[in-house]
Amino acid sequence: MARWEPDARLRLVRAAIDLYAEQGYESTTVAQVAERAGLTKATFFRHFPDKREPLFAGQEEHAALLADGAALAPDDASPLEVVTAALDHATAAFTAEQRDWGPRLRAVVGTHDELRERAAFKRAHLTGTLAAVLRDRGAGEATAAIAADLGVEAFHRGFDRWSDGEGPSYGDLAREELRTLHAAATALR
Amino acid sequence: MARWEPDARLRLVRAAIDLYAEQGYESTTVAQVAERAGLTKATFFRHFPDKREPLFAGQEEHAALLADGAALAPDDASPLEVVTAALDHATAAFTAEQRDWGPRLRAVVGTHDELRERAAFKRAHLTGTLAAVLRDRGAGEATAAIAADLGVEAFHRGFDRWSDGEGPSYGDLAREELRTLHAAATALR
DNA sequence: TCCATCGATGAGACCGTGTCTCATCACCGT
DNA sequence: ACGGTGATGAGACACGGTCTCATCGATGGA
Q1: Residues of B in contact with A187 (CB under 8 A)
Q2: Mean pLDDT confidence for A123-150
Q3: Do A117 and B120 touch (CB under 8 A)?
Q4: Domains and CATH numbers, chain A
């Protein structure tokens, strides 16, 4: 793996973020992204299925980590404890580089519906994965859906605050968000 | 408004649903859809912004109705009561034709990620709209987010059951789903 | 040292989506 | 009849995304 100049994939991610931010997503062509990374269009599509995906490269990992963390929780854990375990486990994915990219990614994604759409899809995938784990553990349909919603909401709120440089660790922020959301949920009338 | 053969837009919707179901979404071209509707590719794109949109033609109306219904609720209504009012008001959108198309649409959308993605986006839009109304009415950030999630979840579950031919009226089904979800939410631990 | 292999890349043809411009045609009011 | 208006058709165009074939660079073995 990785001959010639290594890290082609990473170079493509960086080139995409930079160009989409500099010139706008629409007015940037895939060929331009590839060129900035020292590659060609064909190679871009060998690393990513489409023009939007480099911006969301880390997300499948997040889904996997959330699911793994949830599956690793003790058998007698309540749904909310399972979600907490999932959030804690996901902490592993959050490197310094991810934190730096966070705000820039949010800004770029916010500029174009096509990107918002992909973000919504990834989020729905996350929610679905988490809900499936909860159902497998015996939670009711409705309970699984709500707990998953709260977990993913906390996941994103925590990440946003963390990548804005707030708080000590991501894990603490996410847990705090989850507590807040849970309190609001039980108080709902 | 509608000269020549009237209802060009509706004919396009029907042609799209039929062809996407018959031949698959991928292997159907926009030109084919337009041709079945007795039109051309250029006219298709005058009625819809892209190939996916005819399948989701009714959804903006749903968002508007939910928002209107929520805004019409009495000033002292609780978040959940606001959501209930929104669901009741949305009932207006559900014609017999919508019910017939429901299962077919679900089936087609389920066959292709590109369509699932659009569905997730529409749903996120719905949730965002509802949450915004709730925040404007003074609900807290977290409360608005959760109430909106429950509302949209109930909206979709209700619609699925209703379009499967279940239950008396859509309004009753959606209210029932909302009650179930609310019960699960308050019982969450 | 040389060579065969294998995986990553480049080159370029190709189809479909989505945009745009210009011409056409049907309806409408006068 | 006649001109205006708005929906449509025709066709060129750029770009996204797929595919095939050729190339090249590193590796491992004789």
Answers
A1: 143
A2: 97
A3: yes
A4: 8-51 (1.10.10.60), 58-186 (1.10.357.10)
